[in-house]
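User: Quick sanity check before I run a bigger batch. Here is a single chain. Can you write out its predicted 3D structure?
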Amino acid sequence: MNIIENIKQHRNVLTILLAVIGIGIMLFYTVCDTSCSYLQGDIFGINLEYIGIGYMIILIILAAVRQRNYVRILLAAGIGVEAYLVAYQFKEEVFCPYCLVFAITIVIAFILNHERPLLKEHSMLKRIIYGIGEAELSPTSKMRVPLLAFVLVGYIFITLTFSGSTTPAYGAEKSIVPSYGSGKYEMIIFTDYFCPPCQNLESVIDPALHEFLSRGGVKVTFVDLPIHKETRLYAQYFLYAAKAARNYKKILHARKVLFSLAKNRTALNENDLRKALIAQGVSFAPYDLKPVYPELNTIITTHKAKSTPTCVVMYPNSDIRKYSGTFEIQNGIAMLRASLRKAKK
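Assistant: Done. Predicted structure follows.
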């Protein structure tokens, strides 16, 4: 018995194993807190991860009762769905490793269950249509349908029902995002208080921000990306602190305190955060934030800020430079500092 025949003999068990792996992948995704965690999607309001888990459970049941035709049909439809979702990630330039590995498990399961079509005719059109296989809809009718049809059904279905987002979002309406300083140069800093690289970067860029804002020439805007779920509360109190702050020194102090609290994870609810901020001498003035959120969303979308830390520096003459990661941002700050010195000569 060759290897292929041996694999086919155990493909029901292997299909179940792949489905269990797929469920595990989706469970990991539900607790994912990396920069891809805001890559979200749903069908009829149901999150894709739960649909993925349900899909794999149905696949396990069909494989367990040896309904190979329906296994192939389900996998073919899954390939159509995944083709759209993978293309969506390429289009938005945001990639989720969990989603991609989940797609790979479906492709492997499909190959594992593939059967050569029983073609009576060998025309080119028939080879194309039936090339990826066929399945019987009913044992009594003996009607064999090309799996390509189910791939197209899956693709069309997800096209019509999928609703996705690749940008961390806040809320509704319109207002002004707090900015500090002024000049020909503008700097927008996208961070997340619970992002370890952002926490490390804060101590590095804080002296540069003091320098830029004290000497003038640079307008600085802070935009918090709510990637980690705890960041929403911290971003809320940053805006409250910005409302109460009378100068850039106080807001830089507030950010330093917020990053420190996030790093130590000592204030994860609103009551503890309020107490910690007061103890650290950070003033804040609560107000209705709904009008602020759309402007934050616009900035995030305009500059395609999809991970943290990210820094956008706008030079004169529409020269916009984007830096991602600690090393790139440090280099970007050094270049901005050199440009400022050159401009003042």
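The chain has a mean pLDDT of 85.

User: Great, the batch can go ahead then.
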